[in-house]
Write a structure and sequence with these properties.
With 304 residues, this protein is mainly alpha-helical. It has one domain. It has 15 helices and two strands. A two-stranded antiparallel sheet has the order 1-2. Strand 1 and strand 2 form a beta hairpin. Helix 9 packs parallel to helix 12. The radius of gyration is 20 Å and the shape is globular.
Length: 304
């Protein structure tokens, strides 16, 4: 098989992973063996590349940033996201309980896969996990606050979600979910809303430029601390993914009551409770998501 076909298929797998919260495109890149090449290409902004740009050395820039690889990989990611966004939106509208249950299993398993990847858990790792849990919880409740300018949140979401895509164990769509922007971005993709997508892509581009080097440094120099922080974020944000909800808690904001948080329920406390539809089927979806990530994690951990 030609290299560009392998790269394109790898992009399709990464796109599929990153549009599903809990599955990491970074992990897929690890599994397929091109993670280091991807990070190296994305973190190529330096003095040499700036000089090439000033001189108009297109050939040098193409080689320096490995643009052939990035363009083919990006085409695979883009086509996968376009195809899957409509499917996920349909399932989210028609079978929300089952989809949230599936996502919950994905994210729970991802946090356990990351725990297993740590060399050992000592005081420093425990502190980072605790900080991550607090941060994850706060991010999960951020979208419940009234936001005066949604464009700022779209831009911010693009910036941090693209960084998450580069990290093994956490996906960009998971960050969007935590910020309450998951459906917003999926609908923008489905409806080709270029106002939203351009802001999101601008944030993503700047995120790549400014944070790819930092991410590479953190992974290489502080791997256990970085992964511990990610574990905490994922555990702390599980409240956002809990499948069984019933309405909203209201808070007084700007002289009016605004929804501030979901009311979390046990499955047997939902309206019109049925064991099969409200317990058994959601649990099967949760287990399916858990096993999917666990199996992917098993492959990843045994290929290193």
């Amino acid at each position: 098989m030609k290299d560009w076909i392998k790269t394109y298929l790898g992009g399709i797998c990464m796109g599929a992973a990153d549009i599903v919260p809990g599955v990491s495109g970074g992990t897929i890149a690890f599994i397929l063996g091109f993670y280091e090449r991807l990070i190296t290409a994305l973190s190529g902004v330096n003095k040499d590349s700036i000089l090439m740009l000033i001189r108009g050395d297109i050939k040098g820039l193409w080689k320096h940033f490995d643009l052939g690889f990035l363009l083919v990989l990006g085409a695979g990611i883009f086509s996968s996201i376009i195809f899957l966004s409509s499917i996920i939106l349909y399932v989210l509208n028609e079978y929300a309980l089952y989809l949230w249950s599936f996502f919950f299993g994905l994210i729970l398993a991802s946090s356990l896969v990351l725990i297993k990847s740590l060399n050992k858990i000592q005081l420093n790792e425990s502190i980072f996990i605790g900080i991550g849990m607090i941060f994850g919880y706060l991010l999960s409740t951020l979208s419940a606050i009234e936001i005066d300018n949604i464009s700022h949140l779209v831009f911010f979401s693009g910036m941090i979600s693209i960084c998450a895509m580069l990290l093994p164990g956490i996906s960009g769509s998971f960050i969007l979910l935590m910020l309450g922007m998951y459906e917003v971005i999926l609908n923008a993709i489905k409806d080709l809303n270029f106002n939203v997508l351009s802001l999101f892509c601008l944030g993503a581009f700047l995120g790549l430029i400014f944070f790819s080097k930092l991410l590479k440094y953190m992974i290489l120099s502080f791997k256990d601390g970085t992964i511990s922080l990610l574990i905490g974020i994922m555990i702390g944000s599980l409240v956002k993914i809990w499948p069984w909800k019933g309405g909203k808690v209201l808070e007084l904001t700007h002289d009016e009551y605004m929804p501030s948080a979901d009311i979390l329920l046990f499955p047997w406390n939902v309206n019109d409770y049925h064991f099969l539809g409200d317990v058994l089927y959601p649990l099967l979806c949760m287990v399916s998501g858990f096993l999917l990530v666990s199996y992917s994690g098993y492959i990843f951990l045994h290929k290193k």
